[in-house]
C-alpha cells in the first residue's frame, strides 16, 4: 500500500506537487491513499474534492509513505504523525522536498536523513540536494491538465483580438524570485517597439489562499489602469487557473529561480507558448525545440531576498533577449502554434500523468 502525505487541499506549490503525484498514480491504476497531515486548508475547490474522492485516509499504516513536505515541516509532521498513533518505523518513508536555489539548506539536511529515501521533482533539485550531500532519485511531477471545460477570454475580461502574455505572481512566496518587474519590462519594451501591436499583459496575483487587493491598488496607482495590462487579483479555483492559462497565448516566467517551473509546464501542456529564464527546474522541459528559453546571467542572491540565500546565486533574465524571442511570434500566429504543439507533445510525453506515475511506481517498488 502507498500513502501520499502532505497538503492535498492547499492552493500552494506543495499542494500542487502532491496533487500532481495523486493524479499520476491514479493514471497507472496504483492502489494508494492520501493523508492530510496538518488539515489547515479549506476544502472549497471542486477539482480537489474530485481528485481526492475515495482516496483520502485517516489512518497511515505500513507500506510506502511518500511525504510532500519542506525540510522545515518535518519536525511538526513527525509530531502530528506520532500524536495520531502512527508507527514511523512500520513503513518505508520517502520525502519529496521542494527547493529553488543551487544548494539545499544545510540546516534542513538532518530532517531529510530521517527518511529512507529522497525523491526530486527536477534535475535542478536533485543537484541542489547533492550539493548538500543528499542523494535523491528523480521522479518529476506531472503537468498534464485534468480534462474538463474551460472558461472563455471574456470571463476574465481579456481582449479577444489580442496576443496575450500571462505572468503569475504569488505574494506569499517571495515575489522577488518570480521577478514580476522583468515581465513588466518585457511588455513595455514590446509596446515601445510597436505601439500599435494588439498585445495585452495579464498579471495573476495571489497571496496564499487569498486575493491581493492591497497590492493591486498600489500597482494600479503606480502603473495606471491601462487596458493594455489586466490585473486579476481574486482567487481562482483549479478550473479558473487552467482556463486563464488556456485563454492566453504565451506564459511568461522571467524567474530568478524555480524548483520545477510548474506554470511554464502547465502552459506547454495546454498547447501554449512558454517564455522562461533558461535556468533551474524548467530546463527539464523548456528547450529551444519546445519553447522560448531566455538568456541569463548568474548574480548573488541579495541580503534578505530569499531564505537561506546567503552565498547563493540565481539568474537575472536578459529582457532584451526575451523581447527578441517573443516578438516574431506576435505577428506570426502559425509559427507560434507550431512551436506550442511541439512543446505540448514533448511535455506530455515526459511529464504527463502516466510517465510520472510509472517512474513513481518503479521507485516505490525498488529496494
Keywords:
alpha/beta; 2 domains; six-stranded parallel β-sheet; 19% strand; globular
Commentary on this structure:
This protein has 2 domains: 2-142 and 352-364, 3-Layer(aba) Sandwich (Rossmann fold), CATH 3.40.50.2000; 153-351, Glycogen Phosphorylase B (Rossmann fold). The longest helix has 19 residues, at 333-351. By secondary structure, it is of the alpha/beta class. The mean pLDDT is 93. Helix 8 packs across helix 12 and helix 11 packs across helix 13 (333-351). The protein has helices spanning 13-27, 46-52, 74-83, 109-112, 123-131, 153-156, 175-178, 180-193, 213-223, 238-246, 262-269, 319-330, 333-351, 353-364; strands at 2-6, 32-36, 63-67, 91-95, 117-120, 137-138, 163-170, 199-206, 229-232, 250-253, 273-277, 292-294, 296-300, 313-317. It is globular and about 65 Å long.
Blueprint of the fold:
Blueprint: E1 2-6, H1 13-27, E2 32-36, H2 46-52, E3 63-67, H3 74-83, E4 91-95, H4 109-112, E5 117-120, H5 123-131, E6 137-138, H6 153-156, E7 163-170, H7 175-178, H8 180-193, E8 199-206, H9 213-223, E9 229-232, H10 238-246, E10 250-253, H11 262-269, E11 273-277, E12 292-294, E13 296-300, E14 313-317, H12 319-330, H13 333-351, H14 353-364
Parallel strand pairs: 1-2, 1-3, 3-4, 4-5, 5-6, 7-8, 7-10, 8-9, 10-11, 11-12
Antiparallel strand pairs: 13-14
Helix pairs in contact: 1-14, 8-12, 11-13, 13-14
